Amino acid sequence: LTNAHRPDDKPYAVVQLRRDNALGTLFNIVGFQTKMKYGAQTSVFRMIPGLEDAQFARLGGIHRNTFLNSPTLLDSQMRLHTRPYVRFAGQVTGVEGYVESAAMGLLAGRMAAAQMRGSPLPDVPQDSAMGALIHHITGGAEAKTFQPMNVNFGLFRPVDGLKGGRRGRKDRYKAYTDRAKVAWQGWLAGQP
Predict the structure, then answer these.
(1) Which domains are assigned to the chain?
(2) In whole numbers, what is the pLDDT of the chain averaged over residues?
(3) What is the dihedral of CA 108, 111, 115, 117, to 10 degrees?
(4) What residues form DSSP beta bridges with 6?
(5) Confidence band of 164 (pLDDT split at 50, 70, 90)
(6) CA 26 to each of CA 5, 30, 32, 45: distance values in angstroms, whole numbers, following the listed order
(7) pLDDT over 80 (residue 12)
(8) Mean local confidence (pLDDT), 170-190
(9) pTM confidence score
(10) Which band of pLDDT confidence, cut at 50, 70 and 90, is reported for residue 79?
(11) d(CA 93, CA 66)
């Protein structure tokens, strides 16, 4: 990041403002969750160039991220081990992100519908993005240290014969993606 007016000055941090209303009179400071008291927040925010005279409509706080210890509670069909007629979906399962939460909801719904029809779906292939995420939340992660996670290439099983490290990253990611597409298409093709 470079300031065009002072290219030699390098910032220590960057604050992103996101428009928060249609009129453009309210902006949200992105990602500012804090335990600081409101007075302290105002003092710190006024130190940011451009916010010295800002009026603050709302100040930040910590939001609670409640989630199940899914590796101990859920099976690969996102059902409770102790009550297989109960399924969970979305953020509460231990996925992070809007897309991931929606994807888990979609899969849980499809799995429930298939079970109701009497033809349960096979497990989602672990080599697909959704399968890697389901594997993480239903047993791939260590239950004692389980934390919510976004989908990422670190959840995928290694592809044989590819270099590790930064140099092989592009080829590795392409191999993960190609393998995921084949696995996902195969899984979809095998459904009623």
Answers:
(1) 1-63 (no CATH), 70-189 (3.50.50.60)
(2) 90
(3) 110
(4) 3
(5) low
(6) 27, 13, 16, 15
(7) no
(8) 94
(9) 0.70
(10) very high
(11) 9
Residues 95 and 152 sit within 8 Å (Cβ to Cβ): no
**What is the C-alpha separation between 94 and 139, in angstroms, rounded?**
12
Position 30 confidence tier, pLDDT thresholds 50, 70, 90: confident
Name residue 18's beta-bridge partners: 28
Q: Are 175 and 159 in contact (CB under 8 A)?
A: yes
Residues forming a β-bridge with 87 = 79
- Tokens standing for 90? 């979305």
Closest CA to 148 of 67, 34, 90: 67
**Quick one: how far is CA 34 from the chain centroid?**
20
B/e letters for 110-137, b = 16+ CB within 10 Å, e = fewer, are ebbebbeeeeebeebbbbbbbbbbbbbb
Tell which phi-psi region holds residue 146, choosing left (phi > 0), alpha (psi between -120 and 50) or beta.
Answer: beta
